[in-house]
C-alpha cells in the first residue's frame, strides 16, 4: 500500500487488463474511457490499427493494444473499453479488455523491466506491485504486478515506415 | 509594460516583413525595367516606413542604414538619379543588407557588415552630384549634396543641422518667391486620437522644425483636469511660424499622414510678425512627455494634496512611458508609422490566423448541419425555397471564408530572388530568375508549408542543376543559367514548378550512388522515371563534396515528405543536357472538399468531385482484361484503364464489375476508371487530416465526419491511380 500523502514522487496510474496481464498507464495521459464502438477500418495499415473513430470532431486511430504489444488480439466483449490517451500531442484510443482501477503509486517503487530481446525498444517502462481490492472488498495482500507502459514508445508515428 | 512594447514591436517587425516584401517586389520590377514613378515610390515608402519604426524602437543601425538607402531612393524618386541597371543593382544588394539589419533588430542574426553597401550607396549619391552639375537646373547654393538630400515630400534628416542653416531654395521649386518678409503661420491641432493612430504630433512638429519652423505658441486650454486626462489623447494646439521661402507643398507634405479630423490651418503672412492667435506662452520644447506634463500641471485645478498629485503624475508619466509612440532619447525623427499612402484605396485588416481557422471550423460544422437538416426534411420540404436559399448562403459564406485564407503564392516566391542572388554569389554561376503565375491564389496553410520545399528545390537547381559558366559555354549554351519558377492552378490542384535549363539528371551516376548507398539492389532494373525519383530517397545525395548550399543528402527527401504531408506529390522530369523540372503538385485547399460518397466493399469513402468526369454502369463485356492484373473499359471507343480501389486497399470484394459502377476520373496520368459498389450521395465534406493523430496513409487524402457522426475516408485519386504504375521500387514507397 502506498502512502496516502501526496508527494512529488507520487503518481496515479490507470490499471487495465489485457488477457491475464495487468497493465498501467500514467493517469495524466488519459483523456477518457469509452465503450467499444466499431471503428472505421483503414487500408494499408498494420493490423493492430483497428481503424479510426470520431472523438468529438477529431479523427483518432483505435489501436488493438494487445496485438500492438504482441499478445493475442482481444476478443470484443461487454466490458471491452477504449482508453483515449494523448501521446506527444496526438490522440489515440487503445482497446483493452477491462479497466480496473485508478491507483496511486510511488515512483521509487517502480522496478525496471527485464531486458527483452525485441526488435524495437521496450514499451514496458517498469514494473510495480500494487495491492488490489478484491470483489468482496478485502485486500489481496500478495498484490498484483502491473506492467507500466511507455506511451512515447507506443507512439504510432514510429510506425510510419511499416504503415506505408 | 514591456510586454506591451514587445507586442507593438512585434507589429513593427510584421510591418517590416511586409515592407521588405513590397520593396523587393518593387526593386525586382525595376530590375526588370519597370522604373515607373509608382514603383519607385512604392519602394521608397516601404523603406521609409521601416526606417521610421526602427527609429521609434531605437534600432540605430537599422535606422542609419535605412536612412542612407532612403536618401538614394529619394533621389531616384525625384528623378535626380537615373535608375540605371547599375543603380538598381546597388539598391538590390542594399535591400539584402537592409533585410539582414531587420533580422539583427529582431535579435535573430549578428549585425551585418554594411560597409560595402553603404559605400556603394554613397557612391551612387556622389555620382548623382556629378549628374546634377551637368543638369540644366543650377542649384543656387553649392550645398553639400548629402545634406541637401532630404527631398520635399518627406523632409527628414538625422544630421542634426540647425533649422536656420537650412535655408536653401527647394530643388523642385526653383521659382518659389524668396519673400523674406513673408512667413507662414501654421496652426495645428492634432486629432484627439492622434497618438492612438500612431501619428505622434511631436514628430510632425520636429519635421516642421527641420524645415525651419519655430513654435510660436502652444494652446493648452483644451487640456482637461488631470483626473479626466487621458494620457493617450492629444490636447494641445500649436502655432508655428515658418520662413516664407519654404514652399507650401513642403509644409503640406508634412501633414500627409495626419488623421483627417485634425485641425490644420496654414496662412501666409505678408507682414513679418506672426500674429499668434493665443496668449503667447514660452516655447515648450515638447521633447518628452514629462516636460509637457510639468508645464501642464499649474493649469490644472485640482484639490488634491501635493503628494496625491505627485502620485498621479507619476502614474500618468508611467502610462505615457508605456504608450507605444513615446519617443526614444535618440535624436531619430520618426514619422507617423502609417504605412499606407492616402492614395491607396484598398484597406486591409490584420486578423489573427487562429480566429480565421476557428471561423473556418465553424463554417465547416455549419455545412455539416446543413446537410443533416436536408436529410431530416421530407422531400416536399426540401424543394421549398428556404432550403436551397440556405444552402446557397452557406456555400457563399464558405467560399468567402476560404478566400480569406487564400493568398497569392507570391508570398512564398518572394524570398527566392534574394536566395538566388546569394546562391549566385556563392557558386559564381550566373543565374536568371523567371517567375510565372505568382498571383495564383493558394490557401495560406499551403503557402506556409511550401516555403521549405521550395527553398530546397531552388538550391538544388542552382547547385546541382545549373552548370558553371565555363561548362555552359563549352556545351554551347548561354552563359546565364535560367531558373523558372511557375505556379498554376489546374482543377483542385496547384502546380508549382522549378525548372532549370542545366545539365539534367545524370542517371548513371544517380543509379550508381543509389546502389552504393544501399537504396536499391545492384541488379535492380529501373525506368528513367524511377531513377529520377531516387533523388528523393532518404539519405541520397550525389554531390561529390558536400557544398555549403546543398548536398547534405536531406534536401529532396525533405521536399518529398513535406509535400506528401500536404497531400501533394513531387514529380521530376529531366532531359539530359537540357535541364530538370521539379513539380510540386499540391491541393488547393486544406479544409473543405466537394465530394461524392461512394461505397467500396460496403464501406463509405469520399471521392473528390473535382476529379470526376462521369459515371457508367458497365454493360457486360465493356470492361476487358488486358493482362491478368490490368483492365480497361471501353468508353465510346476509348479504352480507359480501370483500377479497383478494393484491391489496392486489400478489401474483400467479389462483386462483379457489371454490378458495380465505374467512375471515370481525371488524374495527372490521364483518365482512369475506378470501380465502386454504389454512389450514395454528393456533399461537401470537411477534411480532417489523418496525420493529426496518426500519419498519412497512401491512397487516402484524409477522413471526414459524415452527418451521422460516422467517419468516411477520403480517397486520394492521384495516389490511387499512381499506386500501381509508379513508386514501384521498394523503399521509395514510404
What does it look like?
The complex is a heterodimer of chains A (164) and B (734). With 164 residues, chain A is mainly beta. Chain A has one domain: CheA-289, Domain 4 (OB fold (Dihydrolipoamide Acetyltransferase, E2P), Beta Barrel). Chain A is built from 2 helices and 10 strands. Chain A has helices at 65-68, 160-163; strands at residues 10-18, 21-26, 30-35, 49-55, 58-64, 81-87, 90-96, 98-106, 124-133, 139-149. The longest helix of chain A is centred in the middle third of the chain and has 4 residues, at 65-68. The two termini of chain B are 51 Å apart. Chain B is flat. In chain B, the strands form 5 sheets. In chain B, strands 14-18-19-17-16-15 form a 6-stranded mixed sheet. A 5-stranded mixed sheet of chain B has the order 6-8-9-11-10. A 5-stranded mixed sheet of chain B has the order 20-12-13-22-21. Chain B folds into 5 domains: 1-136, HPT domain (Four Helix Bundle (Hemerythrin (Met), subunit A)), CATH 1.20.120.160; 151-338, no CATH class; 353-407; 409-587, Histidine kinase-like ATPase, C-terminal domain (Heat Shock Protein 90, 2-Layer Sandwich); 592-725, OB fold (Dihydrolipoamide Acetyltransferase, E2P), CATH 2.40.50. Chain B is built from 21 helices and 22 strands. Chain B is α+β, with helices and mostly antiparallel strands and 734 residues long. The relative contact order of chain B is 0.06. Classes of the chains: A mainly beta (164), B alpha+beta (734). The interface between A and B is medium-sized, with 26 and 27 residues.
What would you give as the CATH superfamily of chain A?
Answer: CheA-289, Domain 4
Assess the beta-strand content of chain B as a share of residues.
15-25%
Mean pLDDT of chain B: 73
Strand order of the largest sheet of chain B: 14-18-19-17-16-15
User: What is the radius of gyration of chain A?
Assistant: 16 Å
Which CATH architecture of chain A is right? Beta Barrel
Backbone shape of chain A: globular
User: Oligomeric form of this entry?
Assistant: heterodimer
Specify the biggest β-sheet of chain A: 5 strands, mixed
Q: Note the gap between the termini of chain A.
A: 46 Å
Using the CA coordinates, give the radius of gyration of chain B: 33 Å
Write down the domain tally of chain B. 5
Amino acid at each position: 500500500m502506498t502512502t496516502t500523502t501526496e508527494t512529488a514522487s507520487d503518481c496515479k496510474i490507470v490499471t487495465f487488463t489485457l488477457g491475464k496481464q495487468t497493465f498501467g498507464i500514467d493517469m495524466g495521459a488519459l483523456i477518457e474511457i469509452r465503450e467499444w464502438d466499431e471503428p472505421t477500418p483503414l487500408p494499408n495499415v498494420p493490423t493492430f490499427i483497428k481503424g479510426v473513430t470520431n472523438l468529438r470532431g477529431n479523427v483518432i486511430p483505435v489501436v488493438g493494444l494487445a496485438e500492438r504489444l504482441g499478445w493475442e488480439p482481444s476478443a470484443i466483449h461487454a466490458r471491452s473499453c477504449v482508453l483515449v490517451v494523448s501521446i506527444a500531442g496526438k490522440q489515440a484510443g487503445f482497446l483493452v479488455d477491462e479497466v480496473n482501477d485508478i491507483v496511486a503509486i510511488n515512483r521509487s517503487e517502480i522496478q525496471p523491466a527485464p531486458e527483452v530481446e525485441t526488435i524495437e525498444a521496450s514499451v514496458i517502462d517498469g514494473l510495480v506491485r500494487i495491492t488490489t481490492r478484491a470483489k468482496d472488498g478485502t485486500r489481496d495482500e500478495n498484490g498484483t504486478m502491473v506492467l507500466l507502459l511507455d506511451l512515447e514508445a507506443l507512439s504510432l508515428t514510429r510506425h510510419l515506415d511499416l504503415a506505408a | 509594460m514591456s510586454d506591451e512594447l514587445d507586442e507593438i514591436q512585434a507589429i513593427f517587425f510584421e510591418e517590416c516583413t511586409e515592407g521588405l516584401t513590397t520593396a523587393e517586389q518593387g526593386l525586382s520590377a525595376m530590375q526588370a525595367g519597370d522604373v515607373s514613378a509608382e514603383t519607385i515610390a512604392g519602394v521608397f515608402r516601404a523603406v521609409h516606413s521601416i526606417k521610421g519604426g526602427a527609429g521609434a524602437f531605437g534600432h540605430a543601425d537599422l535606422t542609419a542604414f535605412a536612412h542612407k538607402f532612403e536618401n538614394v531612393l529619394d533621389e531616384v524618386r525625384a528623378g535626380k538619379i537615373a535608375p540605371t541597371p547599375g543603380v538598381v543593382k546597388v539598391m538590390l544588394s542594399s535591400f539584402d543588407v537592409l533585410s539582414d539589419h531587420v533580422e539583427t533588430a529582431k535579435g535573430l542574426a549578428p549585425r551585418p557588415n554594411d560597409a560595402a553597401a553603404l559605400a556603394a550607396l554613397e557612391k551612387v549619391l556622389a555620382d548623382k552630384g556629378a549628374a546634377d552639375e551637368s543638369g540644366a537646373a543650377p542649384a543656387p547654393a553649392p550645398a553639400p549634396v548629402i545634406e541637401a538630400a532630404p527631398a520635399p515630400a518627406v523632409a527628414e534628416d538625422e544630421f542634426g543641422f540647425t533649422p536656420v542653416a537650412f535655408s536653401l531654395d527647394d530643388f523642385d521649386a526653383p521659382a518659389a518667391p524668396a519673400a523674406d518678409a513673408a512667413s507662414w503661420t501654421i496652426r495645428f491641432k492634432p486629432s484627439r486620437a492622434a497618438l492612438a493612430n500612431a501619428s505622434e504630433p511631436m514628430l510632425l512638429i520636429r519635421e516642421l522644425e527641420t524645415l525651419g519652423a519655430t513654435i510660436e505658441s502652444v494652446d493648452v486650454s483644451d487640456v482637461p483636469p488631470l483626473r479626466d486626462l487621458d494620457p493617450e489623447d492629444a490636447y494641445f494646439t500649436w502655432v508655428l511660424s515658418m520662413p516664407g521661402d519654404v514652399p507650401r507643398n513642403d509644409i503640406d507634405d508634412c501633414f500627409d499622414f495626419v488623421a483627417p479630423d485634425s485641425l490644420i490651418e496654414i496662412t501666409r503672412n505678408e507682414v513679418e510678425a506672426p500674429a499668434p492667435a493665443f496668449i503667447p506662452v514660452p516655447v515648450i520644447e515638447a521633447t518628452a512627455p514629462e516636460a509637457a506634463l510639468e508645464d501642464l500641471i499649474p493649469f490644472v485645478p485640482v484639490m488634491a494634496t501635493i503628494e496625491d498629485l505627485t502620485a498621479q503624475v507619476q502614474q500618468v508619466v508611467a502610462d505615457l512611458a508605456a504608450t507605444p509612440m513615446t519617443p526614444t532619447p535618440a535624436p531619430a525623427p520618426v514619422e507617423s508609422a502609417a504605412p499606407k499612402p492616402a492614395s491607396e484605396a484598398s484597406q486591409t485588416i490584420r486578423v489573427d490566423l487562429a480566429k480565421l481557422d476557428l471561423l473556418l471550423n465553424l463554417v465547416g460544422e455549419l455545412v455539416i448541419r446543413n446537410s443533416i437538416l436536408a436529410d431530416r426534411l421530407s422531400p416536399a420540404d426540401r424543394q421549398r425555397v428556404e432550403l436551397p436559399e440556405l444552402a446557397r448562403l452557406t456555400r457563399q459564406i464558405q467560399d468567402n471564408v476560404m478566400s480569406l485564407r487564400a493568398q497569392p503564392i507570391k508570398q512564398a516566391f518572394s524570398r527566392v530572388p534574394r536566395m538566388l542572388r546569394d546562391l549566385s554569389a556563392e557558386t559564381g554561376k550566373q543565374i536568371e530568375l523567371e517567375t510565372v503565375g505568382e498571383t495564383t491564389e493558394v490557401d495560406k496553410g499551403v503557402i506556409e508549408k511550401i516555403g521549405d520545399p521550395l527553398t530546397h528545390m531552388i538550391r538544388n537547381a542552382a547547385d546541382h542543376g545549373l552548370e558553371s559558366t565555363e561548362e555552359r559555354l563549352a556545351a554551347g549554351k548561354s552563359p546565364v543559367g535560367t531558373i523558372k519558377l511557375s505556379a498554376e492552378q489546374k482543377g483542385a490542384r496547384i502546380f508549382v514548378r522549378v525548372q532549370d535549363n542545366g545539365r539534367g539528371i545524370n542517371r548513371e551516376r544517380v543509379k550508381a550512388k543509389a546502389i552504393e548507398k544501399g537504396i536499391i539492389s545492384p541488379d535492380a532494373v529501373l525506368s528513367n522515371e524511377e531513377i529520377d525519383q531516387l533523388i528523393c530517397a532518404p539519405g541520397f545525395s550525389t554531390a561529390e563534396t558536400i557544398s555549403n548550399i546543398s548536398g547534405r543528402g536531406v534536401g529532396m527527401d525533405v521536399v518529398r515528405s513535406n509535400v506528401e504531408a500536404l497531400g501533394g506529390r513531387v514529380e521530376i522530369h529531366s532531359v539530359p543536357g537540357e535541364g530538370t523540372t521539379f513539380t510540386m503538385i499540391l491541393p488547393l485547399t486544406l479544409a473543405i472538399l466537394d465530394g461524392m460518397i461512394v461505397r467500396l466493399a460496403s464501406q463509405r469513402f469520399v471521392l473528390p468531385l473535382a476529379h470526376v468526369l462521369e459515371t457508367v454502369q458497365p454493360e457486360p463485356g465493356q470492361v476487358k482484361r488486358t493482362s491478368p492484373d490490368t483492365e480497361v473499359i471501353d468508353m465510346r471507343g476509348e479504352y480507359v484503364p480501370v483500377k479497383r480501389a478494393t484491391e489496392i486497399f486489400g478489401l474483400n470484394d467479389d462483386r462483379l464489375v457489371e454490378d458495380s459502377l465505374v467512375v471515370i476520373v481525371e488524374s495527372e496520368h490521364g483518365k482512369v476508371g475506378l470501380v465502386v459498389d454504389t454512389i450514395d450521395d454528393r456533399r461537401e465534406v470537411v477534411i480532417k487530416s489523418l496525420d493529426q493523430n496518426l500519419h498519412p496513409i497512401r491512397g487516402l487524402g484524409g477522413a471526414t465526419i459524415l452527418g451521422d457522426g460516422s467517419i468516411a475516408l477520403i480517397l486520394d485519386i492521384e495516389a490511387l491511380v499512381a499506386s500501381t504504375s509508379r513508386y514501384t521500387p521498394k523503399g521509395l514507397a514510404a
